[in-house]
Amino acid sequence: MNPEKERWVLLIVLSVIWGSSFILIKKSLEHFNPYEVGALRVLIAGILLLPMAISNIRKFPRKHLKWLVLAALTGNFIPMFLFPIAETKVSSSIAGIVNSMMPIFVIIVGFLFWKFSTTKRQLIGVGISFSGACILALSGGEGGELKLIPIVLLLVATLGYAISMTTVKSKLHEIPAKILSAFVFSFVLIVPSLIALVFAGFFNDLHPDKDLFIGLGFVSLLSVFGTGLAMMLNYRLLNISTPLFASTVTLLMPVVAVIWGLLDGEKLTAMQFAGAFIILAGLIFLRAKSPKKEKPQDSKVVRF
Fold first, then answer.
1. What pLDDT, in 10s, does the model give residues 220-257?
2. pLDDT tier for residue 296 given thresholds of 50, 70 and 90
3. CB–CB of 1/238 below 8 Å?
4. Under 8 Å between Cβ of 102 and 253
5. Can you give the pLDDT at residue 295?
6. What is the pTM of this model?
7. Which residues are within 8 A (CB) of 49 and not within 5 positions of it... i.e. 6 or more apart?
């Protein structure tokens, strides 16, 4: 497929898969605690990808091991726990909306740590979206309760995704997407996820019944599609595009997440709608082409 067409196809498919992840997390939480959901999500993906990792073990990037571990922990481990923890307090719709801040963090992380170039338009877009996130954090829920801590957890998780994406683009871009996913989940994250399951009490409370298998069904869908397959597609998208383009999947994800949430009976307050609108407005602004070519700030020229 033509790379230009392929990147748009990947963008749409990822939007649907990841946009559906938030409702799957919500459904999984009806059967497991948030730590079990996160650990199971990583473990199942690792087990499924283990044969591919073993068959390509000679291609394991030992010289880039520290970057592989960094990308794995920030993008494929820590956020897997932060999202379920946050979704015990906020709706899946809100989680999807906050996750749309990822392009903002890609710009910030890329500029600060990888010397990616940036423009005034992008900086203004960052400011607009950040103000929307603040409104969302202070909006409270339907009962008016302040939801600041869960929003902060979601923002930290989204920051982790940005760190992982920019690390992959800068240091691990030469590794094929399928192999990179296999290495990340199998060689790096299987053991930590097993340890997390032990401390979460999963094996102590393990009772083979209908509830367990329904819960495993939701987590498996989340793991196979929202984690394993999605990360392969994401790494492939990073190989043929830029971190900012890949992160704009978050422009479409909130739409999918909110649709699923509304179908499941969730409601958004007027203030939450306003915060979501401002976040998306900032993202659209920074992605729009400037009428005049802006000179990026002095930095290493790795364009978004």
1. 999 988 878 887 888 888 788 777 677 667 777 888 88
2. very low
3. no
4. no
5. 47
6. 0.80
7. 181, 182, 185, 186, 228
